[in-house]
Every structure is written in structure tokens, then in C-alpha cells.
Amino acid sequence: MKISNETKVGALTAISVTLLILGFNFLKGKSVLKSGFIVYAKYKDTRKLLPSNPVFVNGYQVGSVYEAKAADSTLREIVVSFKLNGGYKLPDNSIATIENNPLGTPSIAINLGDSKVYLKSGDTMRSASPGDVFANLSDKLAPVADKLTATLLSLDSLLRNVNTIIDPNTRGNLQSVISNLNKSSASIVASSIELQKLLNTQTGALAGSLNNMNAFTKNLAANNDKVNNIITNLDTTTNNLARADISGVVTRLKSSVDSLSNVIGRINSTDGTLGALINDKGLYNKLNNTVNSLNTLADDLRVHPKRYVNISVFGKKDKGDYLESPLKVDSAALKKPAP
């Protein structure tokens, strides 16, 4: 049977068109025959999800989106079917979520559940469609922006009030305060320098004091035995004082003081002999006269010894010219040395 050229051209054209369609769909990730492991999910917003967009499980691509079509004429829900590359076991409580990519195409991420029952080809799984990243960000930033606007208005009002309150005099006072603060800060810096000098470990006064304290403690350590002996002696002395009859000594001392007080009282009175000697003026005068008479007798004995002692055989006793008072002594003659 001879085939005409027209039939050959037509068959070749049909085969070419078929291959073109199959290749185009293959490049899009869509096969002509809807076969394989197909799973469905319903979304209210597909976020511009297109066929051949990837499907990931834990970051690993397990398939691609096959098609997306409206569930009914109301367009309330969009049914998305995606084809898995193999017969993966997906728990029936897994969730398919649309993830937006600001720099690329959206994709589907399947969050695996913990159920022991697995999805079958043609089953519809749970879905979740999170809001757009920028939409969510704008929704979260809107209240913050409102609060920031209110804060800026309050700040503007505050600055207006401050400008109203701060007149030129007040500004001058503020400048004076700032100048004083600068002086205070300079004083603080100077004080910190002096404090640093004080705390200097080599030349500071505190270092010297610590060195002296260290030397003092070394001396204490070196004389530890002497200090122990002193403490022992003090302990012995205090023990002896504790054992001593302090009360008896005080009692006897008080008795002696009382006796001495009685003696002094009797001396001050004229009842006793010593009191009479001390307090009686007449007895004093008599004693004074007696002493004066003894002095006169001694002078007379010195001047007229023959009147009282006569050793001459033929002489006679010297009589008359008795002294009635002591002779006056020449102090200048007494001071002359004897010849």
C-alpha cells in the first residue's frame, strides 16, 4: 500500500505537535496523563501558586504542584493538586502550607504529623495559608507606627512648652549650670588624679601606710614570744589580784583612815597633850620664854664662866652684872673664818 506524501506530512505534523505539547508540559512539570501519587489541598488564597512550583518536606523537594482550580463558581476555595515523585508515606494529620518567597515563586511546605495512618493517592490533606510576610509585617508595624506618631506629637508639644518656658534668662542660667558642671567635672578629674597618686602602689601614701602596717605586723610576729610572756604575766597578775583579799585590805585601810581621822581630830582639839601643845597659845608662850631663859643662861655662862665655875685657889667668885637677855649675835662676825 502506497502512502501519499500528504498523509506522511500530516502524520509528521501531528506527531510534532504532540511532542511539542508533551515537551512543554514536561518542562512545566506537568504530565499529560494525570497519573501518579496525587494529593489535594484547599486554600482560600493560593498566593499566586502556579503549576510546577515545588513541594518540600523538611526542605527536601518531594514533588511539584500539578494544577490549581476553583472548587466552585464562588471562588471561595481553590483546590490545589500536587504530584509527589514517589509513594511517600505522609501522615493523614500532616499540614500543607504555602510559603511565600519575596525573591522567587511560592512553594508548598508539608509539615509532617505524628499519625500512624498515611495518606493515599487522591486524598485531601489539611492546609494552612499564612499571611504574606510583608502584610503581616505591616499589620504588626501599624500599631507601633500609631504609637510612634502619638509619641512624636507629645514630644513636639513638650518641646513647644520647653521653648515657651526657657526664656533668655533661663538659658543664661542653664549655661551657668553647664559651666559649673564643667568645673565640677574638672575638679573630679583632679581629685581622681590625686586619688590615683594616693593609691599608687610605689609612692602613694596608702602604700606607705600599708608598708608600715606590714612592718608592724612583722614586728609583732617576731616578738610573738615576748607578747605571749607579757600576756601570761598579765594573766598571772590578774589571777593574783583576783585571789587577793581586796575587800579586807580596803576594810583595814578604811579602819586606818578612820583612826587617823580620830587622831587628827584629837590633835585639833585641846583635850589631849599634843592638842594642847598645838592649840594652847599660853603653853607656846611659856615654852618660848623657857627657851629664851635657857639662851640667856647659856650666854651668861659663856661671858662670865667664873661666876659658875671657880677653879682658882685664891680667886674670888665673879658677882654682879648678870645678863637679863641673850646677847645679840653679829651675823657678820659669825661669817668670818676662824683664825
Task: List the defining traits of the structure above.
alpha/beta; 339 residues; 9 helices; 7 strands; seven-stranded mixed beta sheet
Question: What would you say this structure looks like, in words?
Answer:
There is one protein chain. 54% of the residues lie in helices and 12% in strands. The chain has nine helices and seven strands; from the N terminus they run H-E-E-E-E-E-E-E-H-H-H-H-H-H-H-H. It has helices at 5-27, 133-165, 168-198, 205-222, 224-243, 246-268, 273-279, 281-303, 331-335; strands at 37-43, 54-57, 60-70, 78-84, 95-99, 107-111, 126-128. It is rod-shaped and about 220 Å long.
Topology:
Elements: H1 5-27, E1 37-43, E2 54-57, E3 60-70, E4 78-84, E5 95-99, E6 107-111, E7 126-128, H2 133-165, H3 168-198, H4 205-222, H5 224-243, H6 246-268, H7 273-279, H8 281-303, H9 331-335
Parallel strand pairs: 2-6, 5-7
Antiparallel strand pairs: 1-4, 2-3, 3-4, 5-6
Brief sketch in words of this structure:
Helices cover 54% and strands 12% of the residues. The protein has nine helices and seven strands. The chain has helices at residues 5-27, 133-165, 168-198, 205-222, 224-243, 246-268, 273-279, 281-303, 331-335, and strands spanning 37-43, 54-57, 60-70, 78-84, 95-99, 107-111, 126-128.
Level of helix content?
Answer: 40-55%
Compute the number of helices.
9
Instruction: Tell me the total number of β-strands.
Output: 7
Shape: rod-shaped
**Gyration radius over CA:** 69 Å
In percent, how much strand structure appears in the residues?
5-15%
What structural class do the secondary elements suggest? alpha/beta
Instruction: Characterize the biggest β-sheet.
Output: 7 strands, mixed
Helix and strand run: HEEEEEEEHHHHHHHH
User: Which whole number gives the mean pLDDT?
Assistant: 78
Uncertain regions spanning at least 5 consecutive residues: none
